[in-house]
Amino acid sequence: MDVVRRAPTGSILLLKGIRFYSKIIECASRSNWSHVVIVVQDWDNRPGETFILESSRDCAPLYDLLTEKVVDDGVRLVPVDAFLKSVEKELVVLRRLFVCNADIVQTMTCNLARELAGRRWERNIVSQVVMAWYDGPGGATRQDLSSVFCSELATELYMRAGLVPRDLPSSEYITADFGVDGPIDHAVASRGHSLSNYVVVQHEQK
């Protein structure tokens, strides 16, 4: 847990889920990862506290600091302790973000969180994953933040913070793209920044 508390805003957690829907996403994306969330430090007037910004489906109900109510679906900002206790997962890893200007990432994270407060989770996630992964005819996705899935949220932040070029819509990226040596790694490196290798946060032995 301490390793997450020391990670700067914009770092990510990747989760390997155990639920049926998680396995569908992992299979559709040919990846070990079904969910990506953003680490947020020092939110608003709460210095020294660590939070998770995510968009998820049918998750455990937790108090959301953005809407100031209990939320179990869509975009939400929740304490890291409550998040890690609530998620059904096999493996959680951290990828620490290293950037030249952390203040920009902090500002963009807060702005994006407030902008997307209350947005629902993307209901057509499997088709979105397949379309984003498939680059053939009819495979392109359109930018639409009226509903948001997890990798779209993380990519949108990275684009707004200038860490990833906006050559494609944020909806074209999937959770698998945040893995080591994936498209996000290469895009971030092209801007002079980096993400660490995997650091295990939780591992539930079967």
Low-confidence runs of at least 5 consecutive residues: none
Mean pLDDT comes to 87
Number of helices: 7
Q: Which CATH architecture is right? A: Alpha-Beta Complex
Class inferred from helices and paired strands: alpha+beta
> What is Rg?
16 Å
Q: How far apart are the termini?
A: 21 Å
Give the count of structural domains.
1
Under CATH, the topology is which?
Answer: endopeptidase fold (from Nostoc punctiforme)
Shape descriptor: globular
**What share of residues is helical?**
25-40%
* Lateral strand order in the biggest sheet: 6-3-2-1-7-12
Strand content: 25-35%
Biggest sheet statistics = 6 strands, antiparallel
Question: What's the name of the CATH homologous superfamily?
Answer: endopeptidase domain like (from Nostoc punctiforme)
CATH class reads Alpha Beta
**H and E string:** HEHEEEEEHEEHEHEHHEE
| Overall strand count | 12
